What we know:
By secondary structure, this protein is mostly beta strands. It has one domain (2-260): Methylamine Dehydrogenase, Chain H. It is built from no helices and 22 strands. A hairpin with a 3-residue loop joins strand 1 and strand 2 (9-13). The chain is globular. GO terms for molecular function: guanyl-nucleotide exchange factor activity.
Amino acid sequence: VAVSAGKDHSLTLKADGSIMGWGYNGYGQATAPDGNDFIAVSAGSNHSLGLKVNGSIVGWGKNHYGQATPPDRNDFIGISAGGSHSLALKANGSIVGWGRNDYSQATSPDGNDFIAVSAGGEHSLALKADGSIVGWGNNDDGQVEPPDGNDFIAVSAGVWHSLALKAGGSIVGWGANWSGEATPPDGNDFIAVSAGVWHSLALRSDGSIVGWGSNYAWRGQWVGQAIAPAGDDFIAISAGYEHSLGIERVCRYVVAGDLNDDCK
Length: 264
């Protein structure tokens, strides 16, 4: 029912409430915990988070900065794993951050009017109930300076750039734009966005996916993360560092153009 692409690993939340992980597992980030009571997952650079139905969070993987050690409480309703920090949204509308904090990326703003959070590489974004966006953390490329406005309905923090979806179905991008990753396509029919490193993804209302930005991975290999698969039956997307994920209505995972019929 949900997917999340990290740096070199991936997570999916299954309909039975369990989590499945795959990919690079050098820190145990793809080894999901047991249980059938999860309602959300988030893959960071080398760590992972899972939100349970009772409002508690489980973390696993690389924990050098404490990014995989969430607070011990049961009032969370949202999670986001970033580069080496993590964010969580509480039921009262406030935000909690933990992990690496050299750019204050884990120092959440005050307030109880937040409805969504997104942790990027070294920066963070939050969507407020009034439709405005707040950003904090590393701002070397302007990634924490969102546009003005009160008509935003979703945010996504990439490694060096940021995206936001407007109520009218259009997308706004800001921050680093070396490969065009912060220059979204025109249109007013988008329903979801996801920011990666040098590429971005968006889901259209007709179920198709649009990708933009670089197709070149830093490892020197040509990959297809910004070339979205054909089809109009997708219901979820996630942009990782050098790969992308999507869920089709028929319950098949799409990973870099390959189908893995393993949704059970």
